[in-house]
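Re: that chain you flagged

S.,

Sorry for the slow reply, it's been a week of failed gels. I finally had a moment to sit down with the sequence you sent. For the record, here it is as I used it:
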Amino acid sequence: HSEAELATKAQGLRESLAVLPEEILLFLQTIENKKPKEQVVAIEQYVRQIGYYDFENADVQQVKAGKGFVDRLAIMEARLQDIKDKDKELAPRLAAKKYAGVCADFAELTAAMLRAAGLPTGVLSVLRPRSKVVTTADAHATAFVPWPDENDPDKAKIIPVDGTPSGITEEEQKMLAEIQLPDIASREEEGVVV
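Prediction finished late last night. Pasting the structure tokens below so you have them in one place:
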């Protein structure tokens, strides 16, 4: 692809996905002067911090079906409040959380924030098989950013940006470790990313 073709494709990945809540826009203002890579890392960390993975999301998935992003975000916020109301022991550990959802929800939130920050992004849905039999439990969604290839400026690498939050309990963390990608900072420490 030529540089112009890549620029055109990247422009489509910059279109706004939604009007974001004020608190998210305020967060984005705090990182607007950072380098693009630092913004990507900060957004991934922020989504992980404000999100709670909803393991009992089946009923809520039906409610979210066919709704736009802003409506789904409101449903995710209400769902978190329901979880806090139902589980008084867990509620204090969820104090800093804002939304309850699954990986696809957090992938879209991450992508919306990246685009609001002016960064090209999209959403990837992949299968991460854990055995010879692949099921929907092996599905995972993340946002991604195209990153210029240092060796060839006409090419870009696709870097997953996984806003899927970590678990609150040890049991939740074990379950999420099966699907959640390590964050960008950890992958970079291991020499895997940009």
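What I noticed first: The radius of gyration is 17 Å.

Talk soon,
D.
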